[in-house]
Amino acid sequence: MKKYVGIDIGGTAVKGILVSEDGTILQKSSIPTLATRPFEEVAASIGEQIVSLTGGERIEGVGVGCPGMVDGAHGVIVYNNNLYWKDAPLADALRQKAGVPVKVANDANAACLGECRFGAGQAYSDAALITLGTGVGGGIVIGGKLFEGCNGRGAEIGHMTIVADGVPCTCGRKGCFETYASATALVRQTVFAMLTDRKSAMWDYAQGDLNKVDGKTSFECAKAGDGTAQRVIDAYLHYLAEGIINVVNIFGSQAVILGGGVCAQGAALTDPLKKYVNANRYGGDRGEPTAVVTAKLGNDAGCLGAASLVMA
Amino acid sequence: MKKYVGIDIGGTAVKGILVSEDGTILQKSSIPTLATRPFEEVAASIGEQIVSLTGGERIEGVGVGCPGMVDGAHGVIVYNNNLYWKDAPLADALRQKAGVPVKVANDANAACLGECRFGAGQAYSDAALITLGTGVGGGIVIGGKLFEGCNGRGAEIGHMTIVADGVPCTCGRKGCFETYASATALVRQTVFAMLTDRKSAMWDYAQGDLNKVDGKTSFECAKAGDGTAQRVIDAYLHYLAEGIINVVNIFGSQAVILGGGVCAQGAALTDPLKKYVNANRYGGDRGEPTAVVTAKLGNDAGCLGAASLVMA
Question: Is A245–B286 a contact, with Cβ atoms under 8 angstroms apart?
């Protein structure tokens, strides 16, 4: 069976896998990114990691997921704020070391491809992955293939305006989807609600410490019957659903896969979203309902998706 | 030179052209739609129109633009509120009459393809057409090809939320792009502003009659120095730009082509949009600037784009 290497570059660690074409992970490794080093040094370390992962076995290719704006056609990292790379020829650098075809993609996009090929999206040709973390990452698969936008300049779902002139975003604009639907946003909304209701059970849950509020606080307290917590979740789900509907109306995705820490809430998250999205998407109940599911692959999605970039 | 027929189905008229592969229109015709007739009768009339357009000349194929949700892969009009069609096998019906390949697409999508192939988008592989009319229509071309979403369920740019919980839309939701950026929206915003400022020059321009307000009222009075009119335009362009930026961030479009009556304003419309979009798109000034231009083909875009559907 054919084998591939998938690499997922993060700000602190570079994770890698050796994987067979059916998605079975045969080897795993992780090396520190040491992101302050020059690009050439980081690339050389990743090259060694690839050689070490293969253990001399023949591989068909290497796929790499990397944060930032990626020009997949030319294998170049256009820019990356965390790694300080600019027009970095990553595919070329790794191809010289590995001696096999190398493809690169944005890491969120790669994770989407991984979930679609080997995880929660296996049943669909057209799906979107929306990752609810510090920000909102997104990936789009159309007809089984990753959609990256012209010159990799697309699929920036997190920075889609859903409330013009709304909450300020780190990108400099206002009202981006991620300022309402990220885990960070949920924490902010939770803290805000707690400050309006000193009697909410969320105060006990957080041991009276606003610094201890996280993405679970409102969900757990709502389950226990706290009305303020429930209102936090209702509002959060409302904005999240509005963004999901935009994605569905624009791409016609058959399924929306939610990733990131918040998706640990499972049905408490996906059931109300499924109902709202299908009732409010354009065209309503005509055609197949849109599935809303949680990601399955966890931290392996990035590496598996990266490897998928070079699978036939 | 190869010849094609392009058909643009409207609520009142069905327009058709015979066109050569370089986009030269050789024949034109228009027949009444008589939309209350059963689908079979309308299709039979269009079949006769096609035969009449060709005048016995050999054609390579027929492309058809039709309002509503269209399943291009199966040549079926899934539904259409104005023609009362549901799962109508339009391509099959016309193929039987014309004896050549027939493809169908949503009319706004077809117009986009027309502008990209023969009009304002000729220089670009990736462009979006945004038509500012009664509503906001949209079409997306990716890599020279029409993007219609999975099962034709996509590219519904007009019903992308840009102000969650905002102005009610005819689709039943709130805050859709078209409730802020359509010509209808501009008229509503103009009337609203006039009712807050009885001294605005717009009252004279409209001869004191709110019923005479149209998409030109605010633009013309702003040019003449009316501050209230200028504020209407500033706000209108702000929302229009927010929607355009969403499209650019999602598709990475190299160019956004504006169609519909409002685009008669030319540079007064496109210059401020170009500036705002390029300053505020994700990734800012990295890479080529996004072009914002007005459509060139006018009423022929639909037929030319329809014909393009069957061009190699």
Answer: no
Residues of A in contact with B253 (CB under 8 A): 150
Q: What is the pLDDT of residue B152?
A: 75
With contacts defined as CB-CB under 8 Å, which chain A residues touch B282? Answer: 153, 156, 159, 171
Nearest CB among B153, B251, B254 relative to A252 is that of B153
Partner residue opposite B164 with nearest CB, options A147, A239, A249: A239
Q: State the SS3 of chain B.
A: CCEEEEEEECCCEEEEEEEECCCCEEEEEEEECCCCCCHHHHHHHHHHHHHHHHCCCCCCCEEEEECCEEECCCCEEEEECCCCEEEECHHHHHHHHHCCCEEEEEHHHHHHHHHHHHCCCCCCCCEEEEEECCCEEEEEEECCEEECCHHHCCCCHHHCECECCCCECCCCCECECHHHHCHHHHHHHHHHHHHHCCCCHHHHHCCCCHHHCCCCHHHHHHHCCCHHHHHHHHHHHHHHHHHHHHHHHHHCCCEEEEECHHHHHCHHHHHHHHHHHHHHCCCCCCCCCCEEEECCCHHHHHHHHHHHCCCC
Tell me: ipTM over 0.95. Answer: no
Instruction: Select the residue of B154, B172, B253 nearest A250 (Cβ to Cβ).
Output: B154
Residue B151 has pLDDT above 90, yes or no: no
Lowest mean pLDDT among B86-90, B101-105, B156-160: B156-160
B159: which chain A residues are within 8 Å (Cβ-Cβ)?
A: 249, 282
Rounded to two decimals, what is the model's pTM? 0.87
pLDDT at B81 over 80: no
